[in-house]
Specification:
The chain is α+β, with helices and mostly antiparallel strands. 52% of the residues lie in helices and 17% in strands. A hairpin with a 2-residue loop joins strand 8 and strand 9.
Length: 423
Amino acid sequence: MDPTSIGLAVTLGGGFSLGVWYIFSRPDVSVSMRQGMTAEGLQYADDTPSFGNAKQEIDRKLAIVERRRRRQQALQERIAVDDADRYARDAAAQSQARAEQERLAIAEQARLAALEEARLKAEKLQQVQDQEVESLRRENEEIRLAAEREARRQADFLAAEEARLAEIAASQRESVEASEANSGAIKELKARLSREGAKSSDVQVSLMWNNYNDLDLHIVCPSGERIHGGNKISKCGGELDVDANVRAETRKPVENVFWPEGTAPSGQFQVYVHYYKKQKKRRSKDPTKFQVIVSSEGSDREYSAELSAGDPIMHVCSFSVSSSAEREQNKRELESQIEALSTKFQAADTDGSDQLSIEELAEAIGVTIEEATSLHRQADADGDGSVSLSEFLSSYKPKAGAPKHGPPSSVPSAPDLDSLIDE
């Protein structure tokens, strides 16, 4: 109980005690002490209000005091409830504030943790990227070093291969016999070409051999294009019109490459022979001897050699073709020489037989008897001991503007056979 209530109770108790004492101490008050007597029976002698009225007044005042006390108590209770509510609200607010602070702290911790995790991931990713870059750099370095090693190896291999091919070319040059095509070879060639329906021209290369094995003729044009069984019609105008013994067809095969009259490009041509396949028909034996006859600008040149199965492709010869203007000039020179020779021939034919003896031939062309004997024997195609103008002109080789032939000197190395085998 608070001090106000205590003071009020003491005051009321003191006042009540003082009133009772005053009632009993007055001389004009008689009190009946009979059992059961109530306070309402007390009366003053002068008929003033009795003690019962005072009690009622006191009760009334006590009731007022009680009401006030209860109001005060209710007020205090309401205040206490309000205080409790306020306290509860404050506590709830504080709790909510603490919870919010904790939530914010947790969120901040989560944010910091996420940032840290992101940083660690970024560092890890950067490490992975750095490792990948380093690995790529090492791979590139290894590839570069490997390429350098391979380049050195290829250079060494090419050097060795060039040396080997040079040895092969030197050996081939020694094994190829070159000479002016004799009448027998020309006659045999014409027979085989006629049998196969082959064409002839001012620039023509033919290959002959005498068994069932499969040899292939290869011509490398000035442009670098190759004419062979896999490229029979070339862009430079040349054509392989006969490709023999693909299926072991004849013991007297021939292969032929020609350019239509006057269409052969100017420049240097390379002639190769490739032993493509050894046929089993009639047990064809090795080595296989062959002849290559090159006809260019009125001159025929014969090359003889031999190959066996497994030998590398052989470079047989090279020849040059003049330009159109040069060929026209050579043609005019040749016609002039033939005309002059015909005049000398007629002048030397003293007996008018249209036949020249050795002495007449020596006088006509201005050579010695020994040289005239050789030329006479070479021109005497029918063997009758005399030479007509047509026989001599058929065997005559012009000197001015003659095309250049010969065994290989400074010629390219033999080509790779892989593509040739496929073809």
